[in-house]
Design goal:
Order of helices and strands: HHHHHHHHHHHHHHHH
Helix content: over 70%
Shape: globular
Length: about 400
Amino acid sequence: MTPPGSPQPFNFRSIAVPAFGPALLFSVGEGAVLPVVALSARELGASVAVAALIVTLIGLGSWFFNLPASMITLKFGERWSIVGAAAVGALALLAAGLSSVIPDGLWLLAVAMAVVGMAASVFSLARQKYLTEAVPVEFRARALSTLGGTNRIGIFLGPFIGAGVMQFAGISGAYWVGVAGMTAAAVIALAIPDLEVPGGTSGSAGPAATLRGVAVSHAGVFLAAGAGILLLSALRASRQVVIPLWADHVGLDASHASLLYGLSGAIDMLVFYPAGKVMDRRGRLWVALPSTLIMGTAMLLIPLTGGFTGLLLASLLIGFGNGISSGLVMTLGADFSPDNGRGHFLGLWRFIADAGSTGGPVLLSAVTAVASLGAGVTATGMLGFAAAAVFAVVLPRLKHRRNY
């Protein structure tokens, strides 16, 4: 029994709903609309290129808003930032759903997608900072891996829920699912009190940190560990493009390509918690190296496949490698973040990661245009080995109590 007056031992169940409920609902809402944004743009008269650009605005909005998101989180606190971001995201999806019935709806759809990306940036940063401060260090990787896994589950389930509603409400039904999911996320975050931060306040004595000050004082970490995060994020983003492109390259139809992608995503969702447990008990390097090496190897195997079975095995391997890396980027960001200026640090950290997510598909496209799709996939696979090399050198050198 715990002696009277001593702090209660940490229990994941005590934070399950406030920590992961809003994240799941927000992700369901986001996942519901992702498959239909391009179709909505086409219905509004956009070309294929413009439709693709509108989809990209979600990622660009998130990327460029990471630094303002840190300011918002600092000003309003984690809880109210989560509530506000979910509410703004719901309003943006409501506008997107109405874009088909108003003049110049394509512009409204484009603005709405950029706002959804901005809202996702604030929501994700506030959620990460919230868990970093509310969960003891020895449980940190499991908490953040579970957060990453929860996001993936929501993105996975969202399209199925959206598809069901679209049977009755048409393409706009996906947006109504998105509105409902994000509104529910805001309500849950609003109704549940703030988590108690162990040890009291998370801040430290002294003057408030500035974004520039954090960037300068932690430049070594951003240049070293940040390089590994950049490469890992580029590899992760590229895998989402490689699987359907190579499926088309070897003559598989859209249904088979979707099946490959879905099975890879299913494997991805099954291994996030064990990976977090390994990171907590053995160290971050025990997941950083295997995940990047497995994904890199799987990418190199894809150009060697010529049909469904071979590509399925490679896709499952990619899903496993990506799954065990769930929460790795957030965990390392939390590990290296200072108590004073944590929000600024995480904003910069997420900016680096999102730069990789944007640059990975660009690299694939550039190499494919110059050489071939096989060469592009191979170049992408090499990112995994480069990331592993960076982690192998950097993480032991930057060893400290939270990143053994």
